[in-house]
Amino acid sequence: MSTTNTKPAPLPFHYQFLAGAIAGVSEICTMYPLDVVKTRFQLQVGKAGADGYTSISDCFRKIIKNEGFGRLYRGIIPPVLVEAPKRATKFAANEQYSQMYMKLFGMDKMTQPLSILTGVSAGVTEAFLVASFELVKIRLQDKNSAGKYNGTMDCIKKIYQQEGPLAFFNGLEATIWRHAFWNGGYFGCIHYVRGLLPKAETKQGELAVNFTAGAIGGTFGTMLNTPLDVVKTRIQNQSSGAPKKYNWAMPALATVYKEEGFASLYKGFTPKVLRLGPGGGILLVVFDQVTTFIRKHLM
């Protein structure tokens, strides 16, 4: 991805897929424990008593003390398995949608509205891929499920046996909203920030521009989509056998707001933004570096 508004010729899809996969796995291996902390906060209704979490450090401390350090990486297998196609889809779809929309609207360079549109389109595409993996990850991350599932495959098996195959698509609609908001904000903000920053004259300067734009984009996308992430997490953590309190995204938003207040729609925001702010920078830098390497050495 170039630091100018005029984009280079797109890479073949398989190279875009590879670059996105490497970027995604790099980000998740670095930032995953914050995702566990985010999920714990989002599943916490009210203060949750003495066992509740009051801050990020308190959550880390209680998880390590009560459950062991390894619990910070519980549930990482599903996102790692899907991370390669997920991030590859994010960037590859964004590149493909960029070219399609530029041709459709007769434009020769990207604009911010076009960047937002391509981001939203890529996010919707990405959501269909990740929804089932997200559900399994959340079930494993929930502390109340610690004794229920012995690992990823056991979790998948029990969900299938107890809830049926369609259970893996619970929360798909909320996932679509979450990814559309994040990707639209992320790619739209990247385009805007790059236009504000001085043009990079060196490779180090280009890296700094990409990391800054990606980090700001990740932060802005997180600000936009956290309420949808909260309700998606609540929806996907509901198992069968009991009446479901949360079903669709917008009614679920209203329920959380009514019962717990506006601030509850941003539960887990701090660990989420600490992950996806820098994580967005890591994604963009690694993706840009890999695509540069491919253009230089493999094409």
TrEMBL record:
Chief location: mitochondrion
GO biological process: transmembrane transport
Solcar repeats: 11-100, 110-196, 205-293
Compartments reported by the entry: Mitochondrion inner membrane
UniProt membrane topology term: Multi-pass membrane protein
One Pfam family hit: Mito_carr
Keyword list, A-Z: Membrane, Mitochondrion, Mitochondrion inner membrane, Repeat, Transmembrane, Transmembrane helix, Transport
GO CC annotations on file: mitochondrial inner membrane
UniProt-listed PROSITE patterns: SOLCAR
Family: Belongs to the mitochondrial carrier (TC 2.A.29) family.
Name used for this protein in its record: Uncharacterized protein
Species per Swiss-Prot/TrEMBL record: Dispira parvispora
